[in-house]
Structures are given as C-alpha cells and as structure tokens.
Write a structure and sequence with these properties.
nine-stranded mixed sheet; alpha/beta; about 40% helix; three-stranded antiparallel sheet
Length: about 375
C-alpha cells in the first residue's frame, strides 16, 4: 500500500516561523493546478501497481482551493491510480477558510479528514506568528467543522515566547473541549531565512527557551494521556482508531508519492523531490518532464532513517527488523550504541524492541543521532 501527498503552494500570508515552500500570490493558481494534473498523469506508470490508501493535501494552505479545484485533482488521482475502497483523504485547512458553505461542500466531497491549523487560541500568540486567523475564528471553525466531520485533527504550537504554562494548559483544555480525536503539537523552532530567525537575530524577540518547551511538552503529554489520547508519535496524539494513516505510513517506511512543487517521494529504495519553484515546476510539467532529482539510499541511510522514525513512535526500533533488513553488523552496532541511554533511563528494551521512556521522549531526536551509523557504504 502507498500514499499520495499533494503540495498546494499558496498561502494568504507568510507565518513568521514557516520555511515550507509557498507563495502568497495566487495569480498562477490555475496553471499550477493543471500542472498537478499533468504530473499525476506522468507518474501513473511507475506507481500503477500500488494500491493507494491515503491522499493528503498539504502545503502551503490547501483550503485556498475551491471545492471544484479539489474535486478536479481527486478525480485525476482516482482516474490514474488504484485507490482502495475507503481511503483516508486529508485536507489541511486554516480556520479562516472554513466558512459554513465551504464546510458543507467539503463534507459532500471525497475528503474524509480535516487537519486544522489552529496553533493557538490566544490572539497575542497568533499575531506573533503572523497567522491569518484570530482566536475567535479558531473556535468558530472547530465548532462548525465538528458538526460535519468526525475525523478531525488540530495543530498547536508550544514553546512560544511569553506563553506561560497556565496559558498552554488553557490551549490544550480548549482543544479538548471540542472533542476532536487527534491533536498534533509542535515546538516552535527557528529555521534559517525565516522572519522569526531575523527577529531573534535583531533582538526584536527573545531567543526560544528549550526548558520552557520541554515543560510545555511534559504538561501536554500528561493532559492528553489523561484524556484518553495515545502518544503514538513524538508530535502526535490520537484516540484509538484515529491515528493519522498518512503520517503513520511515513514513520513505518511505506512508499509515498509526492505531487507538486517541493514534494518528496519514496519508493522503498530511492527518494526524489520536485523543484521548489512554482514557475519552473509548471514549465517542466508543460514540457512533459518531471522536475525532480533522485537519490538512491544506501543501506546506512535506510538504517539511520528507520532508527530516527522508529524512536519517535510507539512502535519503536525492532531488533528483528534491523537484523533482517540491514544485517547482523548493524544490530551489534545498535546494541552498543543504546547502552548509555539504557543506563541513563532514556531508552528501554521490551520484547526486543527499543523505545524511549517518558524521560527520553522529548530528547528522542538527539538520542537517534547517537544511534546513527556514521560511515557510508
């Protein structure tokens, strides 16, 4: 089984922390959509044997598309690929786009799941991040969306300057009050070439406090687990039956096809990525040429990626999988590298599977780096 990711590279305005590929101009939106349709057709031959179980509209802000535009893209996917009977089809959406008429039409479409970019229920935080919506719109969109959709995820951001533990608690409790079955929460990070990076460099904003972010993380885990959520991946919490099938496929090493500018694909052995430029992407597709580069992953690359993604999840890193897929030398290396973290209580081994302890969860990316194989094949 495989998934399809469709990148919609348009946003109303630039969030200060975002380094994803997008444009705030939609003047070439129609051309871009036709290019997406063209890429779907160009890709069909190499993916025709795969059953598609998830389709994910990401971005950017996919909810800037009309229902007709979304349906046009989905019709093309269904025409050129073999989609399973009940796929998970997710649309990332901003609260200010989820107006009553739009939500009604979404509910009547093939979309089965919404991922709503709330980020915070406080206007001061939203203004600091330069989000396009306000706190009232966040609440209104959730109240309305839950009348049409059962499978809803919302995004929150923690570690924001001046966000106290109490305000973070209120953010989580507000999210819980809407009864959504999935919550994704991310620590605010400073990416190069973003407005946030520039603000901190110019002393217009204080540097981010990692200890504050860790305190928020621990509070979040405690509150969400107490309310029946499973912390199934570092940044993701879901009720049973509501884990993101799309995201879980990435972490479990399944194949996925990326459509659109900057989108990535993985076929089990190679990774490819499209050009991160709308005009170049459109021109290339119009010339019937895929605008992508490809990297063949070495066995060491695949081992390191498996360790990195595995430690972030409840499924962990399996000794049996390491030995069968990478060989005994990699398993012996892993055994040696995990010892300090076992002794410090950051990792544990149960049933020959390595996972992080509650103490180690927030540090799992750093722990993963210690387990990586350094030499290349």
């Amino acid at each position: 089984m495989a998934g399809i990711y469709i990148h919609i590279p348009f946003c109303k305005q630039a969030c200060h922390y975002c380094d994803f590929h997008f444009s705030t101009s939609v003047k070439n939106k129609t051309q871009l959509i036709h290019a997406l349709l063209g890429e779907i057709q160009l890709r069909k031959s190499s993916w025709q044997d795969e059953a598609i179980e998830t389709i994910y509209f990401g971005g950017g802000t996919p909810s800037v598309l009309t229902i007709a535009e979304l349906n046009l893209i989905l019709d093309a996917v269904y025409h050129h690929f073999r989609v399973i009977e009940k796929p998970e089809i997710t649309l990332e959406a901003n609260p200010d786009d989820l107006l009553p008429d739009y939500l009604l039409l979404l509910a009547q479409s093939r979309i089965t799941r919404l991922s709503i970019g709330i980020q915070s229920f406080f206007d001061a935080d939203l203004q600091l991040m330069n989000r396009a919506h306000n706190a009232e719109q966040a609440k209104q969109s959730l109240a309305l969306a839950t009348t049409y959709f059962d499978n809803i995820s919302l995004d929150l951001i923690y570690g924001i300057p001046a966000l106290s533990d109490e305000k973070w608690r209120q953010n989580i409790e507000m999210a819980l009050s809407f009864g959504v079955p999935h919550i994704s929460a991310y620590a605010l990070t400073v990416e190069p070439k973003t407005a946030l990076h520039q603000f901190i460099q110019n002393k217009q904003m204080p540097a981010l406090d990692e200890s504050q972010a860790e305190a928020h993380f621990k509070l979040m885990v405690e509150l969400l687990e107490a309310n029946g959520f499973v912390h199934y991946e570092l940044s993701n919490f879901g009720k049973q039956g509501y884990f993101s099938r799309n995201n879980s496929s990435y972490w479990l090493g399944k194949k996925y096809l990326g459509i659109g500018p900057s989108a990535h694909s993985f076929d089990g052995q190679t990774r490819s990525w499209n050009v991160s430029n709308n005009a170049k992407y459109i021109k290339s597709i119009q010339s019937q040429v895929l605008p992508s580069e490809t990297e063949i992953l070495s066995i060491t690359d695949r081992y390191n990626e498996y360790v990195m993604t595995g430690l972030r999840t409840i499924w962990g890193v399996s000794f049996a999988h390491i030995e069968s897929q990478f060989g005994l030398a990699y398993l012996e290396y892993l055994h040696i590298q995990i010892q300090p973290h076992l002794h410090s209580g950051l990792l544990k081994v149960e049933h020959n599977i390595v996972t992080t302890t509650p103490k180690g969860k927030f540090l799992c990316d750093g722990i993963s780096a210690d387990l990586f194989m350094i030499h290349q094949d």
